[in-house]
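We examine the record.

___
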Amino acid sequence: MHTMSWDLYITKLMAADTNGIYPVKEAAICGYDGSIWASTEKLKCITPEEIKKLIGDTCCFHQCGPHVAGMKCMMIKDEYDVPEVGCLQLKSKSETGESYNICVGKALQCVIIAQGTKEASGGQLTNMVHPIVKYLIGLKY
């Protein structure tokens, strides 16, 4: 179905940023149909329903945030419609008290999801996700 090697994009997301910092802990690329094109181990359990909710109407996310691979999230910033950003910033909430920034970038046929390390900011994740979103849009993905 997909002629590209999507794993290379996961590798790129997991790489060091321009400051030599590795902000992304987990990553996935998923089709709008809910299929997982490539993923790190922890995000392999993201469901088609979760993916479809992420690409749908985000207006209710302020009251009832989405789930990402079973993690309850709250919306921090919705910039899907901002061309220079094209991303949704979320914060996970876990029972153990740990929380992580999560960035979801929406291309034409897929979403790119990056979960940060404990130290990573939403901006650092957006800086990793947005260039890939922009590139994939250019390729009509």
